[in-house]
Design a protein that fits this description.
alpha+beta; globular; three-stranded antiparallel β-sheet
Length: 207
């Protein structure tokens, strides 16, 4: 997956993740002073390996656009004067602890800043997930960039993700997603009893 970088990206963190009978070498490119980042993906498989016919790679700059995130993950957003968080990974949804597992959870600290009585960290945090039913055919990697703007005394948190999956794993993801959507509709349509008391005289007035 070719990638042309300009002056905006001056740092890189590399991972080597197993997939099927080979590997994907993933580079996470970012800037020390910016929340933006990009992925570079290089497959490392034996010549003629059949992985090429069924593997799809997708990048998500907005995690809310991902079926995986919408189905399995709790995301957190928050904004105040000194903090701006958008779609930060919070947890795996409790209903899916047996269906989704961590592949990795790593933090790279770039800078430590002390302002008055508070300490702030400029970080790159990586979360990797796999589907329990397809441990070697599905990878979802979330890169969280925590960037400090010293002049504004503000921390900005942004996330980007990449998904690598075979067709069978994507079919399973689709089933989970559709099932979650249907369950959500049922919950919305469900009517709960109220504490309101309807008197017989009120009904007679409406007749």
């Amino acid at each position: 997956m070719s990638l042309t970088l300009g002056k905006s990206f001056d740092r890189c963190y590399n991972l080597r993740l197993s997939f099927l009978d080979g590997f994907y070498n993933i580079g996470v490119f970012f800037n020390k002073r910016s929340p933006f980042l990009l992925f570079r993906i290089d497959p490392d498989f034996i010549e003629g390996h059949e992985h090429k016919k069924a593997v799809k790679i997708n990048m998500f700059k907005n995690l809310e656009a991902s079926k995986f995130c919408e189905t399995f993950l709790n995301l957190h957003s928050y904004r105040k004067q000194s903090l701006d968080i958008l779609n930060q990974f919070e947890s795996i949804k409790s209903d899916y602890h047996l269906d989704v597992n961590f592949l990795l959870n790593e933090t790279i600290t770039l800078t430590k800043v002390q302002s008055e009585d508070k300490v702030f960290y400029d970080n790159l945090i990586l979360y990797g997930f796999f589907l329990t039913s397809f441990p070697s055919e599905f990878v979802f990697l979330v890169a969280e960039r925590q960037s400090l703007i010293k002049k504004l005394r503000k921390k900005i948190v942004r996330t980007t993700a990449i998904q690598i999956a075979t067709s069978p794993a994507l079919e399973l993801l689709k089933e989970f997603y559709e099932e979650a959507q249907e369950h959500s509709k049922i919950q919305i349509e469900k009517r709960f009893p109220t504490d309101e008391v309807i008197k017989l005289n009120d009904l007679e007035k409406d007749i």
